[in-house]
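ASSEMBLY PREDICTION REQUEST
Request ID: AP-0331
Submitted by: J.K., bench scientist
Number of chains: two
Total residues: 495
Priority: normal
Notes: Please return the full assembly, not individual chains.
Input sequences:
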Amino acid sequence: MRFIDARCQLGRRCVIRENEPVTKAEILELMDRCRIERAVAYHAIAKEGDVKAGNMELLKDTEGDSRFLRQWVALPHTFGEFMSVEELLKGMKENSVSSIRMFPKTHGYSLKPYALGKFMDAMAEHKIPVFMTYNELASEDALYAMLTDYPKVNFIISDVSYREERKLFPILEHCPNFHIGTGNYVVHGGVKTMCEYFGAERMIFDTGLPTGSAAAAVSLICFAEISEEEKTLIASGNLERMLSEVEL
Amino acid sequence: MRFFDASCRLGRPAAFGEGMPWQTDEILEIMARCHIDGALAYHIVAREGETQDGNELLLREIAQIPQLQPQWCALPATYDEFLHADALRDAMKENGVRTLRIAPKSFAHSARPYAMKELMGFAAECRVPVFFDYGEAPCDELYEICHDYPDVSFVITNTAYALNRWLGPVLDACGNLYLGTGNYVPHRGLETFCKYYAADRLVFNTNLPTGSATAAVSLVCFADISKEEKELIAHGNIERLLGEVRL
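STATUS: Completed
Returned structure:
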């Protein structure tokens, strides 16, 4: 089975743990060992430091490397500190960037339409998927508000933990644009339950490398009591379909 | 350059830091030292204790001090615990009060129209500027207040250095929002603000006695903006807002 990781971070973090993979070579070695063919990657500097500089670092780090699918971190255009929507789309097209990741809590901005409406309209129009970790949202209600404010944007919310089902399932029912990254979704029988109630189409394989365990993430899918077709969708099919729909 | 402080506080707070000036004479001495001609002042008792008593204390405290103009703290008139609009208008007119300060978080009330319609309707009709600290309605709540009451001029005070990404979209969307400069200390913050939103939206304030008046004055004096912009920030904008009040 082919795996494509929807969440991988390149570059050295400010604080690293012992034995954490840091270099691109170490990440690739882990991907090889876990049979992960490719990975959607953003840069640590774009999260922890200067967003634009981090996005540029990503381009340098992934130059000529087809195993990484480039993902840029985005900010609102407030005070001109980030690209305008038009500049962002142009930059993405020129540099083969096919998805966006956002850190509203870490980077300190609003997700409401008065602040991000124009940006999200562009994501919807160009079918660009938007990735976020669950802890970047203030609450499950904030997640619901975002999904309903922008119903035409596909969101992939990752790093949900094992205790979130009661909060997330009603949102999955109401919001077809909500997809869950499987990394750290380690509730007992969770992948199977999710497939049963909402379909495998709503799950996207990710590892959270370098902080998450790639082996655990792969095993979560490999050993799930679901069909081979469902595993294939989760492991690579859903993400590939989503990225193939991007129009830049 | 003349400075007029759009927000300072009088009275002894429940908890205060060593050396913090809290007596009115001390505040006046600092204002004189920093070339601040005048100030809008509210009373700590109105903010931390009983609102109406605090507003009365304020009037007594500044009765003989022409540099200080009264700012009343306000509540919704729920259970008649505060003045209804007509009575508030009469009382403000009688006592020369031209601005209000709200504190929805500290006073534990909603800022939405179902709860604040009467008070905000009065503020809009009489063009009374309404002040509040950013912490009383942060992030999206700030947008909601400014959006819910588009005819009220809001001056937010006590912001911080890391709020531009929150403030920018609200400033874009809401022309009735003004920013108090006290504690707005991002590097080159005033310069950037003037470039994107113009000096007309900035109002000098110190946040005395907790804020440093010298830092607040210096922030404007040493900003890399024009003399005209500094004059607007230092006193022009607040004087214009106060001049528009119709009680």
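REVIEWER COMMENTS: The mean pLDDT of chain A is 96.
SIGN-OFF: pending second reviewer
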